[in-house]
Amino acid sequence: MANARDIRRRIKSVKNIQQITKAMKMVAAARLRRAQERAIASKPYTGKIREVLAHVALGARDAAHPLLAVRDINTVGHLVLSADKGLAGAYSSNLIKQVLPYASGKNNVRLITVGRKARDYFKRRGYRLDGEYTGFSEKPAYQDAVMLARLLSEKYQTGEYDEIYLTYTHFQSPINQTPTTIKLLPVAGLGEGEEQTKTEYIFEPSAHEVLSLLLPRYLETVIYGALLQSAASELGARMTAMGSATDNAQELISKLTLHYNKVRQATITSEITEIVAGAEALK
Protein backbone atom coordinates (compact mmCIF):
# COMPACT_ATOMS: atom_id res chain seq x y z
CA MET A 1 0.00 0.00 0.00
CA ALA A 2 1.38 3.40 -0.98
CA ASN A 3 2.23 5.78 1.82
CA ALA A 4 1.17 9.43 2.03
CA ARG A 5 4.46 10.71 0.59
CA ASP A 6 4.16 8.56 -2.55
CA ILE A 7 0.57 9.70 -3.08
CA ARG A 8 1.57 13.37 -2.69
CA ARG A 9 4.29 12.89 -5.31
CA ARG A 10 1.84 11.30 -7.70
CA ILE A 11 -0.70 14.09 -7.18
CA LYS A 12 2.00 16.65 -7.94
CA SER A 13 3.03 14.76 -11.08
CA VAL A 14 -0.56 14.55 -12.36
CA LYS A 15 -1.06 18.27 -11.68
CA ASN A 16 2.03 19.09 -13.74
CA ILE A 17 0.74 16.97 -16.61
CA GLN A 18 -2.67 18.63 -16.30
CA GLN A 19 -1.06 22.07 -16.68
CA ILE A 20 0.67 20.92 -19.87
CA THR A 21 -2.47 19.42 -21.41
CA LYS A 22 -4.49 22.50 -20.48
CA ALA A 23 -1.94 24.77 -22.13
CA MET A 24 -1.88 22.58 -25.26
CA LYS A 25 -5.67 22.69 -25.41
CA MET A 26 -5.66 26.49 -25.26
CA VAL A 27 -2.97 26.78 -27.95
CA ALA A 28 -4.83 24.36 -30.24
CA ALA A 29 -8.10 26.24 -29.69
CA ALA A 30 -6.47 29.56 -30.60
CA ARG A 31 -4.94 28.11 -33.76
CA LEU A 32 -8.11 26.22 -34.65
CA ARG A 33 -10.15 29.39 -35.01
CA ARG A 34 -7.81 30.79 -37.65
CA ALA A 35 -7.43 27.44 -39.40
CA GLN A 36 -11.21 26.96 -39.46
CA GLU A 37 -11.74 30.41 -40.97
CA ARG A 38 -9.19 29.67 -43.70
CA ALA A 39 -10.73 26.28 -44.45
CA ILE A 40 -14.23 27.75 -44.75
CA ALA A 41 -12.99 30.64 -46.89
CA SER A 42 -11.33 28.29 -49.39
CA LYS A 43 -14.50 26.30 -50.20
CA PRO A 44 -16.15 28.85 -52.54
CA TYR A 45 -12.98 29.15 -54.63
CA THR A 46 -12.79 25.40 -55.17
CA GLY A 47 -16.45 25.21 -56.19
CA LYS A 48 -16.24 28.22 -58.49
CA ILE A 49 -13.10 27.15 -60.30
CA ARG A 50 -14.65 23.73 -60.94
CA GLU A 51 -17.78 25.40 -62.31
CA VAL A 52 -15.74 27.60 -64.66
CA LEU A 53 -13.55 24.66 -65.61
CA ALA A 54 -16.66 22.63 -66.52
CA HIS A 55 -17.80 25.32 -68.97
CA VAL A 56 -14.33 25.60 -70.49
CA ALA A 57 -14.01 21.83 -70.83
CA LEU A 58 -17.36 21.75 -72.60
CA GLY A 59 -16.15 24.34 -75.10
CA ALA A 60 -12.82 22.60 -75.65
CA ARG A 61 -13.96 19.04 -76.23
CA ASP A 62 -12.01 18.73 -79.43
CA ALA A 63 -8.77 19.79 -77.75
CA ALA A 64 -7.34 17.09 -75.50
CA HIS A 65 -5.36 18.02 -72.40
CA PRO A 66 -2.81 15.71 -70.70
CA LEU A 67 -4.50 16.07 -67.29
CA LEU A 68 -7.80 14.87 -68.78
CA ALA A 69 -6.30 11.86 -70.54
CA VAL A 70 -7.57 8.49 -69.31
CA ARG A 71 -5.07 5.63 -69.61
CA ASP A 72 -4.78 1.99 -68.64
CA ILE A 73 -3.90 1.85 -64.95
CA ASN A 74 -0.44 0.42 -64.30
CA THR A 75 0.87 2.67 -61.53
CA VAL A 76 -1.19 4.63 -59.01
CA GLY A 77 0.04 7.63 -57.07
CA HIS A 78 -1.47 8.44 -53.69
CA LEU A 79 -1.00 11.75 -51.86
CA VAL A 80 -1.57 11.40 -48.09
CA LEU A 81 -2.01 14.49 -45.89
CA SER A 82 -1.25 13.62 -42.26
CA ALA A 83 0.12 15.33 -39.13
CA ASP A 84 3.65 16.17 -38.06
CA LYS A 85 2.87 15.86 -34.35
CA GLY A 86 0.98 13.45 -32.15
CA LEU A 87 -1.26 14.06 -29.11
CA ALA A 88 -4.28 14.42 -31.39
CA GLY A 89 -6.28 11.38 -30.38
CA ALA A 90 -7.13 9.00 -33.22
CA TYR A 91 -6.58 11.62 -35.94
CA SER A 92 -3.53 10.00 -37.58
CA SER A 93 -4.65 6.40 -37.08
CA ASN A 94 -8.04 7.06 -38.68
CA LEU A 95 -6.35 8.69 -41.67
CA ILE A 96 -3.98 5.74 -42.11
CA LYS A 97 -6.91 3.30 -41.90
CA GLN A 98 -8.50 5.24 -44.78
CA VAL A 99 -5.38 4.79 -46.93
CA LEU A 100 -4.74 1.11 -46.24
CA PRO A 101 -7.50 -0.33 -48.50
CA TYR A 102 -5.98 1.58 -51.44
CA ALA A 103 -2.34 0.68 -50.71
CA SER A 104 -2.17 -2.55 -48.70
CA GLY A 105 -0.94 -5.51 -50.75
CA LYS A 106 -0.72 -3.53 -53.99
CA ASN A 107 2.70 -3.28 -55.58
CA ASN A 108 1.66 -0.65 -58.11
CA VAL A 109 0.81 2.02 -55.53
CA ARG A 110 3.33 4.81 -54.86
CA LEU A 111 2.81 7.06 -51.84
CA ILE A 112 3.64 10.72 -51.36
CA THR A 113 3.23 11.71 -47.73
CA VAL A 114 2.80 15.06 -46.01
CA GLY A 115 3.48 14.87 -42.27
CA ARG A 116 5.73 12.67 -40.15
CA LYS A 117 3.01 10.33 -38.90
CA ALA A 118 2.10 8.86 -42.30
CA ARG A 119 5.73 8.87 -43.42
CA ASP A 120 6.93 6.91 -40.37
CA TYR A 121 4.04 4.43 -40.51
CA PHE A 122 4.38 3.49 -44.17
CA LYS A 123 8.19 3.62 -44.25
CA ARG A 124 8.47 1.18 -41.34
CA ARG A 125 6.18 -1.25 -43.12
CA GLY A 126 8.05 -1.24 -46.41
CA TYR A 127 5.68 0.80 -48.58
CA ARG A 128 7.29 2.66 -51.45
CA LEU A 129 7.42 6.41 -50.89
CA ASP A 130 8.12 8.64 -53.87
CA GLY A 131 8.11 11.77 -51.74
CA GLU A 132 7.89 12.88 -48.13
CA TYR A 133 7.23 16.42 -46.89
CA THR A 134 7.11 17.67 -43.32
CA GLY A 135 6.93 20.90 -41.38
CA PHE A 136 3.72 22.51 -42.63
CA SER A 137 0.84 20.25 -41.61
CA GLU A 138 -0.51 22.79 -39.07
CA LYS A 139 0.21 25.94 -41.10
CA PRO A 140 0.05 25.13 -44.82
CA ALA A 141 0.79 27.88 -47.34
CA TYR A 142 -0.44 28.13 -50.90
CA GLN A 143 3.10 27.57 -52.14
CA ASP A 144 3.05 24.14 -50.51
CA ALA A 145 -0.01 23.27 -52.59
CA VAL A 146 1.66 24.65 -55.73
CA MET A 147 4.72 22.47 -55.10
CA LEU A 148 2.63 19.33 -54.61
CA ALA A 149 0.40 20.09 -57.61
CA ARG A 150 3.40 20.57 -59.92
CA LEU A 151 4.97 17.34 -58.69
CA LEU A 152 1.82 15.30 -59.28
CA SER A 153 1.06 16.98 -62.59
CA GLU A 154 4.56 16.24 -63.86
CA LYS A 155 4.42 12.61 -62.78
CA TYR A 156 1.04 12.18 -64.45
CA GLN A 157 1.95 13.87 -67.71
CA THR A 158 5.20 11.90 -68.04
CA GLY A 159 3.28 8.65 -67.56
CA GLU A 160 4.94 7.75 -64.26
CA TYR A 161 1.47 7.67 -62.67
CA ASP A 162 -1.66 6.61 -64.53
CA GLU A 163 -4.03 7.62 -61.74
CA ILE A 164 -3.64 9.80 -58.63
CA TYR A 165 -5.66 9.85 -55.43
CA LEU A 166 -5.70 12.25 -52.48
CA THR A 167 -6.50 11.28 -48.89
CA TYR A 168 -7.06 13.98 -46.30
CA THR A 169 -9.29 14.65 -43.28
CA HIS A 170 -12.40 16.72 -43.89
CA PHE A 171 -13.16 19.12 -41.04
CA GLN A 172 -16.75 19.18 -39.85
CA SER A 173 -16.40 20.28 -36.23
CA PRO A 174 -13.73 20.17 -33.49
CA ILE A 175 -15.06 16.77 -32.38
CA ASN A 176 -15.95 15.38 -35.80
CA GLN A 177 -13.44 14.92 -38.62
CA THR A 178 -13.91 12.54 -41.55
CA PRO A 179 -11.03 10.90 -43.47
CA THR A 180 -11.79 11.33 -47.18
CA THR A 181 -10.29 9.99 -50.41
CA ILE A 182 -10.86 11.64 -53.81
CA LYS A 183 -9.46 11.10 -57.28
CA LEU A 184 -7.21 13.95 -58.36
CA LEU A 185 -6.10 12.81 -61.80
CA PRO A 186 -7.34 12.31 -64.40
CA VAL A 187 -9.74 15.19 -63.79
CA ALA A 188 -13.14 13.60 -64.41
CA GLY A 189 -16.74 14.75 -64.43
CA LEU A 190 -16.11 18.12 -66.06
CA GLY A 191 -18.86 19.28 -68.35
CA GLU A 192 -21.37 16.73 -67.09
CA GLY A 193 -24.83 18.18 -66.75
CA GLU A 194 -23.91 21.27 -68.75
CA GLU A 195 -25.63 20.15 -71.94
CA GLN A 196 -28.92 21.74 -70.91
CA THR A 197 -27.49 25.19 -70.18
CA LYS A 198 -28.23 27.70 -72.89
CA THR A 199 -25.50 30.13 -71.87
CA GLU A 200 -22.86 30.55 -74.54
CA TYR A 201 -19.29 31.46 -73.66
CA ILE A 202 -16.69 33.13 -75.82
CA PHE A 203 -13.12 32.24 -74.87
CA GLU A 204 -10.11 34.42 -75.60
CA PRO A 205 -7.66 33.50 -76.93
CA SER A 206 -9.19 29.99 -77.14
CA ALA A 207 -10.95 27.43 -74.98
CA HIS A 208 -7.93 25.12 -75.17
CA GLU A 209 -5.52 27.76 -73.86
CA VAL A 210 -7.90 28.77 -71.08
CA LEU A 211 -8.27 25.10 -70.15
CA SER A 212 -4.48 24.67 -70.10
CA LEU A 213 -4.25 27.56 -67.65
CA LEU A 214 -7.17 26.57 -65.42
CA LEU A 215 -6.43 22.86 -64.95
CA PRO A 216 -3.17 23.37 -63.02
CA ARG A 217 -4.87 26.10 -60.95
CA TYR A 218 -7.74 23.75 -60.23
CA LEU A 219 -5.30 21.10 -59.03
CA GLU A 220 -3.54 23.62 -56.79
CA THR A 221 -6.84 24.84 -55.36
CA VAL A 222 -8.08 21.33 -54.53
CA ILE A 223 -4.82 20.39 -52.81
CA TYR A 224 -4.67 23.69 -50.91
CA GLY A 225 -8.25 23.23 -49.73
CA ALA A 226 -7.39 19.71 -48.55
CA LEU A 227 -4.32 21.03 -46.70
CA LEU A 228 -6.47 23.62 -44.91
CA GLN A 229 -9.11 21.02 -44.05
CA SER A 230 -6.42 18.70 -42.68
CA ALA A 231 -4.84 21.49 -40.61
CA ALA A 232 -8.19 22.42 -39.05
CA SER A 233 -8.96 18.74 -38.40
CA GLU A 234 -5.59 18.16 -36.73
CA LEU A 235 -6.00 21.15 -34.43
CA GLY A 236 -9.60 20.23 -33.64
CA ALA A 237 -8.61 16.66 -32.80
CA ARG A 238 -5.73 17.89 -30.63
CA MET A 239 -7.94 20.36 -28.79
CA THR A 240 -10.50 17.64 -28.08
CA ALA A 241 -7.85 15.14 -27.01
CA MET A 242 -6.12 17.61 -24.69
CA GLY A 243 -9.48 18.65 -23.23
CA SER A 244 -10.26 15.02 -22.44
CA ALA A 245 -6.78 14.52 -20.96
CA THR A 246 -7.22 17.58 -18.74
CA ASP A 247 -10.59 16.32 -17.50
CA ASN A 248 -9.17 12.85 -16.86
CA ALA A 249 -6.27 14.37 -14.93
CA GLN A 250 -8.68 16.32 -12.74
CA GLU A 251 -10.68 13.17 -12.06
CA LEU A 252 -7.49 11.27 -11.16
CA ILE A 253 -6.38 14.10 -8.85
CA SER A 254 -9.72 13.93 -7.04
CA LYS A 255 -9.39 10.16 -6.56
CA LEU A 256 -5.78 10.44 -5.38
CA THR A 257 -6.67 13.26 -2.98
CA LEU A 258 -9.45 11.15 -1.46
CA HIS A 259 -7.07 8.19 -1.19
CA TYR A 260 -4.42 10.44 0.39
CA ASN A 261 -6.87 11.71 2.99
CA LYS A 262 -7.87 8.14 3.88
CA VAL A 263 -4.24 7.06 4.24
CA ARG A 264 -3.42 10.15 6.27
CA GLN A 265 -6.43 9.59 8.54
CA ALA A 266 -5.47 5.95 8.99
CA THR A 267 -1.93 6.99 9.90
CA ILE A 268 -3.17 9.54 12.44
CA THR A 269 -5.57 7.00 13.95
CA SER A 270 -2.77 4.43 14.19
CA GLU A 271 -0.47 6.93 15.93
CA ILE A 272 -3.19 7.94 18.40
CA THR A 273 -3.85 4.28 19.16
CA GLU A 274 -0.16 3.66 19.82
CA ILE A 275 0.06 6.69 22.11
CA VAL A 276 -2.99 5.57 24.08
CA ALA A 277 -1.65 2.03 24.31
CA GLY A 278 1.69 3.30 25.54
CA ALA A 279 0.03 5.50 28.14
CA GLU A 280 -2.04 2.59 29.39
CA ALA A 281 1.06 0.42 29.61
CA LEU A 282 2.80 3.01 31.86
CA LYS A 283 -0.01 3.05 34.42
From TrEMBL:
Keywords: ATP synthesis, Cell membrane, CF(1), Hydrogen ion transport, Ion transport, Membrane, Transport. Signal peptide: none annotated. Gene3D superfamilies: 3.40.1380.10, ATP synthase, gamma subunit, helix hairpin domain (1.10.287.80). The keyword Membrane applies. It comes from the Bacteria. It is a peripheral membrane protein. It holds the Pfam family ATP-synt. InterPro entries: ATP_synth_F1_ATPase_gsu (IPR035968), ATP_synth_F1_gsu (IPR000131), ATP_synth_F1_gsu_CS (IPR023632). It is found in: Cell membrane; Membrane. CDD domains: F1-ATPase_gamma. The keyword DNA-binding does not apply. F-type ATPases have 2 components, CF(1) - the catalytic core - and CF(0) - the membrane proton channel. CF(1) has five subunits: alpha(3), beta(3), gamma(1), delta(1), epsilon(1). CF(0) has three main subunits: a, b and c. Belongs to the ATPase gamma chain family. Produces ATP from ADP in the presence of a proton gradient across the membrane. The gamma chain is believed to be important in regulating ATPase activity and the flow of protons through the CF(0) complex. HAMAP family: ATP_synth_gamma_bact. This is ATP synthase gamma chain. The lineage of its organism: Bacteria, Bacillati, Bacillota, Negativicutes, Selenomonadales. The gene is atpG_2.
